[in-house]
Design brief:
This protein has one domain: Pnp Oxidase, Chain A, CATH 2.30.110.10. It is built from three helices and twelve strands. A seven-stranded antiparallel sheet has the order 3-2-6-9-10-5-4. Strands 1-11-12 form a three-stranded antiparallel sheet, covered by helices on one side. The chain has a two-stranded antiparallel ribbon with strand order 7-8. Strand 4 and strand 5 form a beta hairpin. Its EC number is 1.-.-.-. GO terms for molecular function: oxidoreductase activity.
Length: about 170
Protein backbone atom coordinates (compact mmCIF):
# COMPACT_ATOMS: atom_id res chain seq x y z
CA UNK A 1 0.00 0.00 0.00
CA UNK A 2 1.34 3.43 -0.92
CA UNK A 3 1.10 6.17 1.66
CA UNK A 4 -0.45 9.42 0.54
CA UNK A 5 1.88 12.33 1.26
CA UNK A 6 0.62 14.92 3.72
CA UNK A 7 0.10 17.97 1.56
CA UNK A 8 -0.64 20.21 4.52
CA UNK A 9 -2.64 23.32 3.79
CA UNK A 10 -1.83 24.73 0.36
CA UNK A 11 -1.54 28.50 0.03
CA UNK A 12 -2.25 30.58 -3.02
CA UNK A 13 0.77 32.14 -4.68
CA UNK A 14 1.91 35.33 -2.93
CA UNK A 15 5.12 37.13 -2.02
CA UNK A 16 4.84 35.63 1.50
CA UNK A 17 4.54 32.09 0.11
CA UNK A 18 7.64 32.57 -2.04
CA UNK A 19 9.64 34.12 0.83
CA UNK A 20 8.60 31.31 3.17
CA UNK A 21 9.56 28.65 0.62
CA UNK A 22 12.98 30.17 -0.08
CA UNK A 23 13.80 30.62 3.62
CA UNK A 24 14.02 26.83 3.58
CA UNK A 25 16.36 26.81 0.58
CA UNK A 26 20.04 27.22 1.47
CA UNK A 27 21.85 29.50 -0.97
CA UNK A 28 25.40 30.69 -1.39
CA UNK A 29 26.03 34.35 -0.60
CA UNK A 30 27.59 36.78 -3.04
CA UNK A 31 28.10 40.53 -3.16
CA UNK A 32 27.62 42.26 -6.50
CA UNK A 33 29.44 45.56 -7.06
CA UNK A 34 29.57 48.19 -9.77
CA UNK A 35 30.90 51.68 -10.36
CA UNK A 36 28.05 54.20 -10.19
CA UNK A 37 28.00 57.87 -11.17
CA UNK A 38 28.43 58.82 -7.49
CA UNK A 39 30.91 56.08 -6.57
CA UNK A 40 30.85 52.36 -5.88
CA UNK A 41 27.59 50.50 -5.24
CA UNK A 42 26.89 46.97 -4.13
CA UNK A 43 24.36 44.57 -2.69
CA UNK A 44 24.15 41.08 -1.22
CA UNK A 45 22.72 38.45 -3.55
CA UNK A 46 21.68 34.85 -3.02
CA UNK A 47 20.49 34.44 -6.60
CA UNK A 48 23.89 33.85 -8.22
CA UNK A 49 23.77 31.11 -10.86
CA UNK A 50 26.21 29.63 -13.33
CA UNK A 51 24.65 29.91 -16.80
CA UNK A 52 27.22 28.80 -19.38
CA UNK A 53 30.75 27.43 -19.47
CA UNK A 54 31.41 28.55 -23.05
CA UNK A 55 31.43 31.46 -22.93
CA UNK A 56 31.76 31.64 -19.13
CA UNK A 57 28.54 33.34 -18.05
CA UNK A 58 26.55 33.82 -14.86
CA UNK A 59 23.34 35.46 -13.73
CA UNK A 60 21.95 37.21 -10.66
CA UNK A 61 18.74 38.98 -9.76
CA UNK A 62 18.42 42.57 -8.56
CA UNK A 63 15.29 44.42 -7.45
CA UNK A 64 14.41 47.50 -9.47
CA UNK A 65 13.66 49.28 -6.20
CA UNK A 66 17.12 48.57 -4.77
CA UNK A 67 19.46 51.51 -4.18
CA UNK A 68 22.06 49.79 -6.38
CA UNK A 69 19.71 49.33 -9.33
CA UNK A 70 20.31 52.71 -11.03
CA UNK A 71 24.05 51.92 -11.28
CA UNK A 72 23.52 48.25 -12.19
CA UNK A 73 20.96 49.26 -14.83
CA UNK A 74 23.63 51.10 -16.84
CA UNK A 75 26.89 49.42 -15.76
CA UNK A 76 28.94 47.80 -18.49
CA UNK A 77 30.84 45.72 -15.91
CA UNK A 78 30.06 44.25 -12.48
CA UNK A 79 32.05 42.53 -9.76
CA UNK A 80 30.82 39.24 -8.36
CA UNK A 81 32.22 38.14 -4.99
CA UNK A 82 31.55 34.76 -3.41
CA UNK A 83 31.79 35.21 0.36
CA UNK A 84 33.45 32.92 2.87
CA UNK A 85 31.84 31.75 6.10
CA UNK A 86 33.91 34.35 8.00
CA UNK A 87 32.15 37.19 6.14
CA UNK A 88 28.63 37.22 7.64
CA UNK A 89 29.08 40.83 8.78
CA UNK A 90 30.18 41.90 5.29
CA UNK A 91 27.10 40.19 3.83
CA UNK A 92 24.90 41.95 6.39
CA UNK A 93 26.50 45.33 5.58
CA UNK A 94 25.80 44.96 1.87
CA UNK A 95 22.24 43.77 2.63
CA UNK A 96 21.46 46.66 5.01
CA UNK A 97 19.56 49.62 3.59
CA UNK A 98 21.36 52.92 4.10
CA UNK A 99 24.65 51.32 5.20
CA UNK A 100 28.02 52.81 4.20
CA UNK A 101 28.92 49.65 2.32
CA UNK A 102 32.37 50.73 1.15
CA UNK A 103 33.46 52.50 4.34
CA UNK A 104 35.63 50.92 7.04
CA UNK A 105 35.93 48.08 7.82
CA UNK A 106 35.16 47.01 4.21
CA UNK A 107 38.41 46.48 2.30
CA UNK A 108 38.29 46.97 -1.46
CA UNK A 109 40.17 48.29 -4.46
CA UNK A 110 39.49 49.31 -8.05
CA UNK A 111 39.75 46.27 -10.29
CA UNK A 112 39.50 45.57 -14.01
CA UNK A 113 37.35 48.19 -15.82
CA UNK A 114 37.16 50.23 -12.60
CA UNK A 115 34.91 47.68 -10.90
CA UNK A 116 35.12 47.69 -7.07
CA UNK A 117 36.73 44.40 -5.98
CA UNK A 118 36.31 43.34 -2.35
CA UNK A 119 39.24 42.04 -0.29
CA UNK A 120 39.45 38.65 1.40
CA UNK A 121 36.62 36.92 -0.51
CA UNK A 122 36.68 33.27 -1.59
CA UNK A 123 36.28 34.23 -5.24
CA UNK A 124 36.05 37.50 -7.13
CA UNK A 125 35.08 37.87 -10.77
CA UNK A 126 34.78 40.89 -13.03
CA UNK A 127 32.10 40.43 -15.66
CA UNK A 128 30.74 42.26 -18.70
CA UNK A 129 26.97 42.74 -18.57
CA UNK A 130 25.37 41.23 -21.69
CA UNK A 131 21.64 41.48 -20.83
CA UNK A 132 19.13 42.65 -18.26
CA UNK A 133 15.95 40.57 -18.49
CA UNK A 134 12.72 41.88 -16.89
CA UNK A 135 11.34 39.47 -14.27
CA UNK A 136 8.51 40.99 -12.21
CA UNK A 137 9.91 43.59 -9.79
CA UNK A 138 13.47 42.38 -10.54
CA UNK A 139 15.86 42.14 -13.44
CA UNK A 140 17.93 39.06 -14.17
CA UNK A 141 21.38 40.25 -15.15
CA UNK A 142 23.38 38.01 -17.47
CA UNK A 143 27.11 38.68 -17.38
CA UNK A 144 30.14 37.18 -19.11
CA UNK A 145 33.12 36.49 -16.87
CA UNK A 146 36.26 38.34 -18.02
CA UNK A 147 38.77 37.90 -15.20
CA UNK A 148 38.80 36.59 -11.63
CA UNK A 149 40.59 34.87 -8.79
CA UNK A 150 39.22 31.65 -7.25
CA UNK A 151 42.39 30.79 -5.31
CA UNK A 152 41.49 31.71 -1.73
CA UNK A 153 40.93 28.73 0.57
CA UNK A 154 37.90 28.51 2.82
CA UNK A 155 34.30 27.47 3.10
CA UNK A 156 31.35 29.38 1.63
CA UNK A 157 28.87 31.52 3.51
CA UNK A 158 25.28 30.30 3.18
CA UNK A 159 21.93 32.02 3.65
CA UNK A 160 19.22 29.90 5.27
CA UNK A 161 16.15 30.58 7.44
CA UNK A 162 16.77 34.33 7.31
CA UNK A 163 20.37 34.19 8.56
CA UNK A 164 23.95 33.71 7.45
CA UNK A 165 25.53 30.34 8.28
CA UNK A 166 28.57 28.23 7.52
CA UNK A 167 28.57 24.72 6.10
CA UNK A 168 28.33 21.87 8.59
CA UNK A 169 29.86 18.46 7.98
Amino acid sequence: MTATPDLGTPQLASPDLLRSAFRRHAAGVAVITARGADGPVGFTATSLTSVSAEPPMLSFGVGTGASSWPAISTAEHVGVHILGEHQAELAATFARSGADRFGAPTGWRDGHAGVPVLDDVLVWLVCRVVARVPAGDHRIVLAEVLVGDPSRAGRPLLYHQGGFNGLRD
